[in-house]
Amino acid sequence: MITARAAATFEPVGRSVATARGFVRDTLQGWGLAELIEDAVVLTSELVTNAVVHAGTSAEVRCLRDEQGVRVEVVDRHPERELPLAEVSRGRVDLNSEGGRGLMLCAALADRWGVDYTTTDKCVWFRLAQQTVAVGTRTAGPILPADLLPETDARVRVAVVEVDRVDAITSWNDDAQQLFGYTAEQVVGKPLADLAAWPQTPGTGTGIAEALLLSRWEGSYGVRDSQGRTVPVYACHLRIRDAHGEPSTVCLIVRDHERAILQSPVRLPSHGGNGGESRDRTGDSLDALIGSPPPDDLDGLLQRTVERARDMLDGDAAFLLLATDDETELEVRATTGLPSARQRFARVPVETGSGRYGSARMPSVHPDLAHTPGAVPLLSGTGMHAVVTVPLKVEGRLTGSLGVASETPERFSNEEALRLQFAADRIALAVESARLTELERLRRGSLAFLVEASELLAGTLDRNQTLALMAQMTVPTLATWCAVYTIPEPGSEPVLSYVLHEDEERIDGIKALLERVEAPAPDLALGVRPWNAPSDAARNTALRTSLRSLALGGRSPSETPGTSLTTAQAVGGETVVLPLVARNRVIGLLALGKPTDERFRQDILELAEDLSRRAALALDNARLYSERTAISQSLQRSLLPPELPAIDNVEVEVIYRAAGEGNEVGGDFYDLFPIREGVYGFAIGDVCGTGPEAAAVTGLARHALRLLAREGLGGPAVLERLNAAILEEGPRARFLTLLYGELWPQPSGGALLKMVCAGHPLPMRLSPDGTVESAASPQPLLGVMDDLELFEQTATLDPGDVLLCVTDGVTERREGTRMLGDDGLADVLSNCTGLTAGAVAARVLRAVERFASDAPSDDMAILTLRIPE
User: Fold this and answer.
1) How high does pLDDT run on average in the chain?
2) Cys staple from 666: which of 551, 658, 686, 776, with CB 3.0 to 4.6 Å?
3) What strands, in cross-sheet order, belong to the sheet with 793-797?
4) Calpha distance 70→281 (Å, rounded)
5) How far apart are CA 229 and CA 238, in angstroms?
């Protein structure tokens, strides 16, 4: 016979599961069925989740009470979705799968359960039998034989000790005197810590001073008696306050072997199940609830853990934090019922003293966070009041913290803390094993990432390419967006040099925002640090733009609200700044950012630090290379002749190629310059070797030629003095081949040539009929002998004639055993009749390049003079 009925319908949204749990809890609490609440809430959570999440329909929850207990029905509108009843009855459901797990719980927890189908809906129901307990009983145990009862001394003594806010003893009863041998006069006013032999090592756990500040503590330690011996004791500490609000702590202490007198029961009241068998409620291990075997990946295991922990204690939210290697910080890794995107990977310091998360190393129950704000920073501003937290420990080392929270104050007691701690102890080793597996995988991936990054960075000495590589390696692997600041000179302000976002359409908006924000300080002492300026500026800009748009009744002409909001969302998460340090100097800054409500994982930040060190060195190498290249190129350009003069009735063309990467000038050189009115000097030469050493002699030769020629000296005298200057260089001297001549344009057309060919490839003259002949004869090269006897040769260029002058980089072009040579060059020139001077030079260059497949390895210069017809 039904004595009470309650029902409610819940929409197919995720929050409905928590609301349904609250509905069942409040209903059963109102009916006085508190002992059935936990099982009912767990089963309701599973069945409503199946309806609103998996079936995707609304769910109606009905609570029906009778004289023997309560029946809960969950009705959904998806009857065609059958349940795996046969598999459940045979115990073959995969506990890692969502399907069928709720039915397995029904089979395990309920007295009876079943499924009813109609044409329009499906009803899954379970029944829980009411326990019969004595009035006013909170916990009770069965009647036991005398030999199974706990053993005590002839007389049980319970020491009652009270300490004040500074931990000094204020009260010491007779039993305390009998147990430890001290009179009240001997100990009152002394700190309890002077007598206690506390088991924790100072600085690594919760000490006695911290334990005495907790609202409740229970456990074992030792007390030194008046004979100097350590008496093992079991104690229960309770924090109280007097009528004036003055806090103190009452300590109830017994001998350790008599702990049963004070120890909280490790089992909750048992109740009858199927067949009248009792069940150990404390044995509801968390690993059994999450499935066996647990999920392979760490994130899946942690998420399943917090979900089941929340359901096990009928909470509104749950969270799990993992400790860093040095146990100084806890990192949020999984949450349920909280804004997980905002909280994920947030870091909370672990303190050895009280406050903040100081109680992470031991179970803790907070009846109402409104009375202790900041006690659990993770829950600030979430609307949660009551919270119970327990540590995850492996071999005595803190590896994490598990917590369950409720919106209802004083929702949890020490019994829930014991249940949660029991479950946490069972799951801690699996979590630590999965964490180490993930850590090893991440380290392997990080090592491979850094090796690849180092190879890419080492493959370029271009500054702009290094900046681009630095950004492309961080986005999106390490961050959603990044910005690189460079410091041009020591002591100068950082300059925004590169911005990248994984969505290219947002790059311009972020770049414009960062240009308005003051750059972070390039202080090496600050290290890796958060940077809030971009997110603050983005939110302010978005707010101003939206208000302006509303005021104008439309969009701002310069910036739309959508653009501002998009940029604000892109940079609204955590932003960190890493200094780029090379050779003990900050040469730049790397800013990494996440979108709204996202944070960085600690291992990602550590990987970013390693990358920043490599990138900084690569960037500094590129800077030094660019500076030296710029200096080298500037000096090399000074060795090249200025712009060639225009000569009436003479076409002039020069092609110059220096061997070696980054070289603009080598051992080959050319020049064309006015000597006096109507007379021009021209030269083409080749210094032994290539590179800077040869270029130094090149500069000497070119400038000496100009100076000596303008002094009125003839060609042989110019070259003889140049030879003497080269020999004076001593060990730095290099021999030089040189063709030097004077060009005398004639008023009637044509030109007169006076030339000296000192060991250089002979100049070739092309006639309009295609005839090719040498225009001079060979003479000794320069830089070898002191006494030279050089002579000047004369030739004429008629209209249509072309004079071709080259260095040996042209004639000695090789392909295997073949060489272009003078004959090959003559064949190329013979096919250039009718071409301009520029076309002739270009055809010769093309012939040289095509002669062999590999790139030219020697300097090369081509000078052509042509008399127009």
Assistant:
1) 80
2) 658
3) 668-676, 679-687, 736-745, 751-758, 793-797
4) 19
5) 26
This model's pTM is above 0.70: no
Q: Which residues, 6 or more positions from 663, have their beta carbon under 8 angstroms from its beta carbon?
A: 636, 690, 691, 695
**How far is residue 167's CA from residue 248's CA, in Å, rounded to a whole number?**
8
As given in the structure block, the two tokens for residue 230 are 């350590």
Single-letter amino acid code for the residue at 353: G
Contact 251, 263 (CB under 8 A): no
Torsion angle (degrees, nearest 10) of CA 281, 286, 287, 290: 110
Find residue 251's DSSP bridge partners: 161, 237
Measured CA angle at 211 (ends 207, 215), to 5 deg: 165
**Do 389 and 306 contact (CB within 8 A), yes or no?**
no
Tell me which DSSP letter residue 295 carries. Answer: P
Question: How far is C-alpha 325 from the chain's CA centre?
Answer: 18
Burial of 24 (0-12, 13-18, 19+ CB in 10 A): buried
**Cis before 293 (ω within 30):** yes
Residue 116 CA to residue 125 CA, distance in Å, equals: 8
How many residues appear in the chain? Answer: 869
Cα(576)–Cα(654) distance, rounded to whole angstroms? 55
> For residue 135, how far is the Cα from the chain centroid?
60
Joined together, the tokens standing for residue 118 give 């109609």
Instruction: Name residue 517's amino acid.
Output: V
Comparing CA positions, the residue from 808, 702, 717, 806 lying closest to residue 754 is 717
Cβ(835)–Cβ(651) below 8 Å: no
- Residue of higher predicted confidence among 654 and 607: 654
Contacts of 754 (CB under 8 A, 6+ apart): 714, 715, 741, 742, 744, 792, 793, 794
Backbone angles phi, psi at 477, to 5 degrees: -60, -45
**How many CA atoms are closer than 13 Å to the CA of 404, on its beta-carbon side?**
26
What domains appear along the chain, each with residue ranges and CATH number? 2-85+100-129 (3.30.565.10), 156-261 (3.30.450.20), 298-351+358-412 (3.30.450.40), 460-551+561-630 (3.30.450.40), 640-867 (3.60.40.10)
- What CA–CA distance (Å, rounded) separates 131 from 535? 57
Residue 759's pLDDT is what? 92
Q: Which of 350, 348, 362, 353 is nearest to 392 (CA)?
A: 362
Q: What is the pLDDT of residue 740?
A: 95
The pLDDT score that the predictor gives to residue 521 is 84
Name the percent of the chain lying above pLDDT 70: 82
Angle at 429 between CA 424 and CA 431, to 5 degrees: 80
Question: What pLDDT is recorded for position 741?
Answer: 94
Report the alpha-carbon distance of residue 1 to residue 5 in Å, rounded. 11
For residue 519, pLDDT over 70 is answered with yes
Maximum CA pair distance of the chain? 143
pLDDT, tens digit, for every residue of 427-450? 888 888 888 887 777 778 777 777
| CB-neighbour burial class of residue 310 (10 A; exposed 0-12, middle 13-18, buried 19+) | buried
> Which candidate, 518, 536, 527, places its Cα nearest to that of 576?
527
Are residues 254 and 159 in contact, defined by beta-carbon separation less than 8 angstroms?
A: yes
- CA neighbor of 514 nearest in space, from 469, 570, 555: 570
Select from 393, 419, 277, 395 the least CA-distant residue to 404. Answer: 419
Between 108 and 281, name the one with better pLDDT.
Answer: 108
Q: Give the Cα separation of 286 and 308 in Å (integer).
A: 7
With tokens 């490790």, the residue in question is: 266
